[in-house]
Amino acid sequence: MFGPSHYVPILRWKQAERFALRYLHEEDRKSITPLIELTPLTFKSRNTAEHVATPLDPAQVVHQEAKKLLKSCANFPFFLDLRHVAVDVVRTRAKVHALEYFAEVGRSYKLALVPVTGLSRTKEYQASVAAIVKDDKRGICLRLTPADIIEAGFTRSIRALLKSLRLTEDAIHLLVDYEANDPAVPSVDLLLATIPNLGKWQTLSVASGAFPPDLQGFEPGNRRIPRTDWLAWKKAVSTTKNGIRKPSFSDYTIQYGLYKEPVEGCNPGIRSTRTG
Q: 51 and 265 in contact (C-beta within 8 Å)?
């Protein structure tokens, strides 16, 4: 359980992010629960000279990344989201999603992994989340977009997911993810007022991103980018009324949005779009 003074950074799992977590002071680390995202490129070997990416053995990749997670996260809790990854690992009896295999390998390292899901993930992904929940009993992180929350039937969808996972609200870390900080979407207060049983969820966080999709419009030199994500969260927390629960702050440490496979010879791209 954590409150509004806690921080939930959304980290695309690269070397800089790994080092940043690894060398945090222990007291600071206690106030942070990172949400870590892996991308398809994690499971590919890149030939820089020929700009070619070839698949790697996913089981070996999971073992390697689990060791990196142990070095960076130790046994502190973290959220793991493989929404960008459609990779299976072959087991003795059947194939499982890489997320499920991560949890299996993580148990040998005593990783405090909490799986992340959303309302529109695939059946295979949700089945892996259900298996992890059953074995680890750490609950889940549920990632919702404003579009999810304002959609007709939202409450029904929430109830159906909880029923399928055999969970109640107190086992779920709720993350409302605005992605880009867009003043046109409903305010934090309005969205939170729509969520059923707001006070019962284990934790509540609101995420958004202020970093632009790219820096092509900036001239060389020092430039300032307004932290509209931080300012919007700060305003929401300071003006929360009628007993509405105050969320923790979450943000993207790089560009917001959905990962997109890079064109060969180019750097990975980021796009802003609705996600599950």
A: yes
Q: List the chain domain ranges.
A: 7-214+225-271
- State how beta strands 258-260 and 269-271 pair: antiparallel
As a whole number of angstroms, the distance between CA 274 and CA 252 comes to: 15
Query: In whole angstroms, what is the distance from residue 133 CA to residue 141 CA?
Result: 11
Residue 212 CB coordination number (10 Å): 15
CATH topology of domain 7-214+225-271: TIM Barrel (3.20.20)
**What are the backbone dihedrals phi and psi of residue 135, each rounded to the nearest 5 degrees, phi first?**
-85, -40
Kindly calculate the radius of gyration of the chain based on its CA atoms and give it in whole angstroms. Answer: 19
**Among the listed residues 136, 134, 196, 197, the one whose alpha carbon sits nearest the alpha carbon of residue 164:** 134
Q: How many whole angstroms separate alpha carbon 179 and alpha carbon 272? A: 7
Q: Tokens for 163? A: 């029923």
Q: Which residue has the tokens 């880009």?
A: 180
Q: How far is CA 200 from CA 123, 137, 181, in A?
A: 26, 18, 26
Q: What is the pLDDT of residues 185-242, one digit of tens each?
A: 888 888 999 999 999 999 999 998 776 666 667 778 777 777 777 777 777 777 666 5
pTM for the model stands at: 0.86
Handedness of CA 81, 114, 42, 164 (dihedral sign): negative
